[in-house]
Amino acid sequence: MKKNSREPAAWADNHFQLRLYVAGQTPKSLAALSNLKRICATHLEGRYRIEVIDLMKNPQLAQGDQILAIPTLVRSLPKPIRKIIGDLSDTERVLVGLDLRGLQVRNAEKNAGA
Amino acid sequence: MAQRNSPAHHDIAALEKTPTGILGLDQISGGGLPTGRTTIVCGGPGCGKTMLGLEFLVRGATEFNEPGVLIAFEETPEEMARNVASLGFDLKDLARRKKLSLDFVYLEPSEIQETGEYDLEGLFIRLQHAVDSVGAKRVMLDTLEALFSGFSNPGILRAEIRRLFRWLKQKGLTTVVTAEKGDGTLTRHGLEEYVSDCVILLDHRIREQISTRRMRIVKYRGTKHGADEYPFLIDENGMSVLPVTSMELQHKVSNQRVPTGVPDLDDMLEGKGYFRGSSVLISGAAGCGKTLLAASFAEATCKRGERCLFIGFEESMDQITRNVKSVGIDFEPFVKKGLLVHRAWRPTQYGMEMHLLRIHKLIETYKPSNIIIDPITNLITASTEKDVHSMLMRLMDFLKEKGVTSVFSSLSKIGEIAESEVGISSLIDTWVLLRYTELFGKRHRGLFVLKARGMAHSPELREMLITSQGIKLGPADALLAYRDREREPQLDHQAAVSKSVRSKGNRRTAGLTRRSSRGAR
Q1: Is B129 on the interface with A (CB under 8 A)?
Q2: A75 to chain B nearest CA, in Å?
Q3: Single pTM value for the model
Q4: SS3 B94
């Protein structure tokens, strides 16, 4: 109970849980991972966790998150789930896809209101 | 450089085919779909594409020991399972028994942001995983084109779809891909350009408020196939396709004879009755006893322990059963024993093909030795004469192939031969004509055999008496003798009446009215 009450509070507002689906060490997958790390370091410092899932090793995991395209980045938290496909080379679109700006604005409003 | 006509080119074995198990489809495709290749099934909404693919998978899993994979892009497996449950297909059970792997691909473009290069490797991985999990030989992708609404980069998509088809072929998976029909093209996104092995087009059209489903094999590389449009039906047993014109007048004929159920009529046909497997037309005016004559034949069939299929376009089974009781025919025990199978439906209920298809299926199911259709004239109300003629021709060919003796009744105007009958007369082997003759102010039923191929039939016009012990025929000379005496034609009602008045004095000598009135009682 203690743990549960702490975790969601920590993740709820400004922490990002990200899953990157790849299929082996392809150039596209490697590019996506390095792009993601760079974007997160710049915009989400200390507030993110990245999990890389290689579907070559765990094909059964593709169904759960409805993965078709590779690479696919899934933002599982905060809700709702969002998906970004591609090698994440377009930083601006990645930020839009993660709804980072929108969240920042909303959080700022919320804090101001409180 | 490889020569066009190199020996190797000739040595290629005939294309291997995978049976679909769908009634009729394997026949028109010469054995099924191309093994290890992709077939596109296209058509408009509600034309039966998904049904074809599903039946291909289910039959494969249940009848040919070939497990299958279904990747559904538009409906969830739950929805699909519900849709086909009415056909007796239990997808969930097949999935539990590892005969089928179901995967639903959910595409919601609004949830997806595209940035940079990607491919559809995820789809390949899911497909491979599903194939491995059941050891699949068959795959269905329904509807692959949904991808086009899920991803915005057509360049990547086309390249990936091309790669997918190559991949399926490499893996040797016999695949059905369904696709929506486009405007002026076979498929909306031109999938047929990628797959050139086999394309099947389905069509569901409504003409004069009657729906007909049709199928055409647009393309089947490297094989002979029926090029026509074939009607098909989806019912509680799944899909069945009707091959229309595979007929080559090669049916074996039988020398065996089957009694007509009326001993006096047998006498007119060399004392033996109809040829087995021949077609018989009983035509005549309203109320002259066509159905009773056909029913007599049905009774005789059932009494021999053979099965008779009775298709009524006019009366329900109850009504026919009641009516034939009056001449001493009891259908009920035969129905109970399953010897008499009766189906009644409205001629306007279906298009011609559907009638034909239903009859086909009934014959395949019950394997009757005789079929009675009462009356065929009613079909004309549902369609054009040309359609009816072509349907009957196909039906008769089919019946002859199966060696089923057929009896058709046909309603014609009093004393006339209906034009429609002239049309089908060439298809008929034995034609029994019933007509009214007016004598002494009364009408009498006359019967004669207009034609009977392959036998020496009696040319007599006999009086037909409907008695409580069945149909009897009066003595050969009674009506003829009368007609010989009254030479002038009797077409005019007035003349007929005056004649009957004039000949009142002859009543005793003719001795006909007495007999017939006794018979009627």
Answers
A1: yes
A2: 11
A3: 0.70
A4: helix
